[in-house]
Specification:
Length: about 450
């Protein structure tokens, strides 16, 4: 029998409404010790009433709902209090619930109970956390679909096929002389190739989707006064960075989220790359170099209206590690100097004027670099390290089983690999994961979820 837990499930801040969740066998009893209503409460129906302190003082006029039996998020009796979102009311309500015998929930405890009660599989539980943490619309879409079991629906047939295969291989190993229908190697290989393809495709799509689900780490770099901060502001559509004629103004890294050409960016404006004139600027230049080195996309800004300077020429050395670099010939309103078109010729060039605000050439370039193509954010994209690791280890085992069968090794070797693959696939969507894996999944949650 589980004890009865409670926690604030909405943000701990002043807001219109705050929701406190209660879950456990005595959820309704606990609720009724702090909530009074004129009419008896009905299952799954909101009731208007009063939140009261242990000594009977009214604390809020609010709503409450009970979910009896197992038809609730956690799969056990639950209740919710919908209060006015005042920090004072929230803290009084939490205090009243504690005095009435409830226990404050640990981080992720509601979702953990949902998982343990069979309401969610592991990927669905992770999807709850990822939906809440989603920073892009694409990430939210994928998490919402995963929450409805999309990953399990895709993987279950492959899992079942491998389990069948294992049963057949095991029969061959255990009763080699019996008259059981032998599983022909080509049929077993067919199954394994099919699963191999599915896993490869899942990993590949998930990799390509990362730009959209996480955002592309993007650094704006270039010589002082090239127009980096102007471009940064233009991409954000607001004045965030200081723009001046004086070189060396930006020293700290400025980070913002933005969308460009439909691609979510984690954008950083950096100090101009040049020989610094003082300590603060020197640190700024160093940070800029580090940022460029760790970025996936570098936007190298050049004053396109004049010949490249030695400062400009120093920049490309910082860029060799980025997956993509776009050279921006800025200030096109002043006319483009032909020499800038020859600059860093290995990289994609766009010409624009950041002050004009028309960024369409850059939008097109970014869009073409991170083309979502046929990607669908349908809940079958793996979005965390645990899922990716389980999928690639399943793929390794499937390939090992294929090799074993192809090279005519004893059947029990292929069987071991196939069983390992099944276990890894099961871990992705199933409930068979080890306790420490489960602990790690829920460690990422916050209280109230
Ligand atoms: P940063 O040092 O690279 O961040 O450059 P800023 O964004 O501070 O810009 C330096 C100067 O160039 C400022 O006076 C800007 O107004 C000017 N500037 C930036 N972009 C353009 C542009 O597209 N056209 C023109 N004419 N001036 C620009």
């Amino acid at each position: 029998m589980s004890d009865t837990i409670y926690a604030l499930s909405t943000a701990p801040a002043r807001s219109g409404v705050a929701v406190i969740r209660i879950s456990g066998n005595s959820a309704e009893d606990l609720l009724l010790r702090v909530f009074r209503s004129k009419h008896p409460m009905r299952n799954r129906e909101m009731t208007l009433g009063t939140l009261v302190s242990p000594d009977g003082r009214a604390l809020d006029r609010c709503l409450a709902v009970v979910f009896r039996g197992s038809a609730s998020y956690t799969g056990e009796p639950s209740a919710e209090l919908h209060l006015h979102g005042s920090p004072a009311v929230i803290s009084a309500a939490l205090d009243a619930l504690g005095r009435a015998g409830g226990r404050p929930a640990a981080a992720g405890e509601f979702t953990r109970r949902a998982f343990l009660n069979g309401k969610l599989d592991l990927a669905e539980a992770e999807a709850v956390g990822e939906l809440i943490a989603a920073e892009t619309r694409e990430a939210a879409e994928n998490a919402a679909a995963m929450l409805s079991g999309a990953l399990g629906r895709m993987l279950k047939p492959a899992y079942d096929a491998i389990i069948d295969l294992c049963a057949n291989l095991a029969a061959e190993v255990d009763y080699p002389d019996d008259d059981i229908e032998p599983l022909t190697v080509p049929r077993a290989l067919d199954t394994l190739f099919h699963v191999e393809h599915l896993l490869e495709n899942t990993l590949d799509r998930s990799d390509r989707a990362r730009a959209f689900t996480e955002g592309v780490r993007t650094a704006i770099v270039g010589a002082p006064n090239a127009g980096k901060s102007t471009l940064f502001n233009a991409i954000l559509g607001e004045r965030r960075a200081i723009v001046t004629d004086a070189p060396g103004t930006t020293r700290d890294l400025l980070r913002e989220r933005a969308t460009l050409g439909g691609v979510p960016l984690l954008l950083t404006d950096t100090a101009g790359l040049r020989d610094a004139e003082n300590e603060a600027e020197r640190i700024g230049v160093q940070l800029a170099r580090e940022e460029a080195a760790s970025a996936e996309l570098v936007l190298l800004v050049l004053d396109g209206s004049r010949e490249p300077t030695p400062d400009d020429c120093a920049a490309p050395e910082d860029l060799s590690t980025a997956a993509h670099t776009v050279v921006i010939l800025n200030k096109s309103d002043l006319g483009i100097h032909p020499a800038t078109r020859e600059f860093a010729p290995d990289f994609l060039h766009v010409e624009l004027s950041a002050t004009s605000g028309d960024l369409s050439p850059l939008e097109q370039a970014v869009h073409s670099l991170y083309d979502a193509g046929d990607l669908r954010f349908d809940g079958t994209l793996l979005t965390n390290a645990r899922q990716r690791a389980a999928c690639s280890s399943a793929l390794d085992s499937v390939r090992a089983a294929i090799d074993a069968l192809r090279s005519g090794l004893p059947t029990d070797l292929a069987l071991t690999d196939a069983e390992r693959a099944a276990a890894r696939i099961g871990e992705l969507f199933g409930r068979g994961a080890a306790e420490d894996v489960i602990d790690r999944v829920f460690a990422n949650f916050c209280v109230g979820k």
